[in-house]
Amino acid sequence: MINNADRYVQQKLMEAARAVGFLEGMSTWLWTKVGPDLADEAVVEFEKRVSAIAECFGLEKESC
């Protein structure tokens, strides 16, 4: 039986997964729209930050 606290934690983890997925999708969109004009350093930094956010929630990048 799932209690309210477990349900709340599950809901927050799903929200975190959706947020990380959104950020990953945004990086893909940026790359397709800006492409080669986007500095490699900016792409690397964005990806590192998305990975760090995912890690904070215990998510693996591939599972988001």
Biggest sheet: strands, sense, closure? Answer: none
Q: What is the straight-line distance between the termini?
A: 26 Å
The geometry reads as elongated
What proportion of the residues form beta strands (DSSP E)? Answer: under 5%
| Residue runs with pLDDT of under 50 for 5 or more positions | none
Along the chain, the helix and strand elements come as HH
Summarize model confidence as the mean pLDDT: 81
SS-derived structural category:
mainly alpha
Give a structural overview.
The protein is elongated. The protein has helices at 4-34, 40-56. It is mainly α. The protein has two helices and no strands. α1 (4-34) packs antiparallel against α2.
Could you give a quick summary of the protein structure above?
This protein has helices at about 5-35, 40-55.
Question: How are the SSEs placed, and which strands pair?
Answer:
Blueprint: H1 4-34, H2 40-56
Helix pairs in contact: 1-2
List keywords for this structure.
single chain; 2 helices; 64 residues; mainly alpha; elongated
